[in-house]
Design brief:
Keywords: Coiled coil, Signal. By secondary structure, the chain is an alpha+beta fold. The chain contains four helices and 14 strands. It is rod-shaped, with a radius of gyration of 54 Å. 20% of the residues are buried.
């Protein structure tokens, strides 16, 4: 094709006083140059459009990322708040476990005191050993029985961060405490039932045992055993205790029992005899008045008569005797309590 060999002359005139610059280009070069220019223009336009599109997409992605980041941070904050709440609840639960453990210790202590009160020997039982085990957060001072703290008192000190290991340990201790709580309570139940039965039996035994003073007066005028007879001045065996008082003072049954004698004799004057359990009897003599009658069921502390000076007596007093299987014994060891403190 001949057009490719055609020459085109270009003149460049910079100003009127400058020389004219001329250069020739073939038609082929012009066509190729035009094509290259068009391609470069197309590429530039495409690049610009892609850049604008990518910029828009990047902006949208940045916005989505910011939104997702905000949501994630909110989720993290909510999780942290929930973890803090759970940790606070765990601490409260641990304190409740410690309080329960202290109450169980108190129950065991009260059980021991109750046994001691009624004369039952206290041994190392399974419930005692279990209940004495420490609960979560028992301090070394608490373990030694020295220092205790009250939740309603003043608190203070530096707040230090809690490690994950410490929280895990507290969680395990609290979990183990509550897992074994049911077992410990089950172990305590039969022991408490045994104590209840033993106390009930002891109460029945105490009720029928003459353990109280038969009068309000505590003035003993003559003891049990050998003495000089006030009428003959000869050595005689005094079968009971003489308790001084005033005429009309009340006389109390020293234990639960049945009145088997209520009358008058030359030596004892007005007198009452009560039969108790286990072969024990109590005898009350020299009364000014008898208020009980044969066959009466009396309770410990019931009034059965009044102090007097009837029969073989030198003045107002109560002659009090205790007999076991028909033999007189010293009543003094039985005088352990008043009627009000029985």
């Amino acid at each position: 094709m001949k057009w490719r060999h055609k020459k085109f002359t270009f003149m460049v005139i910079r100003d009127a006083n400058s020389s004219v610059m001329r250069f020739q280009l073939s038609a082929l070069i012009l066509v190729i140059g035009s094509i290259l220019a068009l391609v470069l223009l197309a590429v530039s336009i495409t690049a610009i459009m892609l850049y604008r599109g990518n910029t828009s997409q990047i902006g949208q992605l940045k916005q989505k990322l910011a939104t997702a980041t905000g949501d994630y941070e909110q989720t993290i904050d909510a999780k942290n708040e929930h973890i803090d709440e759970l940790q606070s609840n765990l601490i409260d639960l641990s304190q409740q476990a410690k309080a329960i453990n202290e109450r169980m210790k108190d129950i065991t202590s009260l059980e021991s005191q109750l046994k001691n009160m009624v004369g039952i020997k206290t041994g190392d039982t399974a419930s005692t050993k279990k209940t004495d085990s420490q609960s979560p957060q028992d301090s070394a001072e608490d373990a030694d029985g020295n220092e205790q703290f009250a939740m309603d008192g003043g608190t203070g000190g530096e707040d230090l961060p809690v490690t994950h290991e410490e929280m895990d340990r507290l969680t395990d201790e609290t979990k183990n405490f509550f897992l074994t709580l049911g077992e410990r309570i089950e172990l305590m139940k039969p022991e408490l039932e045994l104590t209840k039965d033993a106390v009930a039996k002891q109460q029945k035994l105490i009720a029928v045992t003459p353990t109280i003073w038969p009068t309000d007066s505590r003035r003993i005028t003559s003891t049990f055993g050998i003495r000089r007879d006030p009428f003959t001045n000869r050595a005689t065996n005094h079968a009971g205790l003489d308790i001084g008082g005033d005429i009309g003072d009340p006389i109390y049954a020293a234990a639960d029992g049945t009145v088997i004698e209520a009358g008058r004799s030359a030596s004892h004057g007005n007198n009452v005899m009560i039969a108790h359990a286990n072969g024990i009897r109590t005898h009350y003599s020299h009364m000014s008045k008898i208020t009980a009658k044969i066959g009466d069921k009396v309770r410990k502390g019931d009034i059965i008569g009044e102090v007097g000076s009837t029969g073989r007596s030198t003045g107002p007093h109560l002659h009090y005797e205790v007999l076991i299987n028909g033999e007189h014994v010293d009543p003094a060891p039985y005088l352990k309590a008043s009627r009000r403190s029985q």
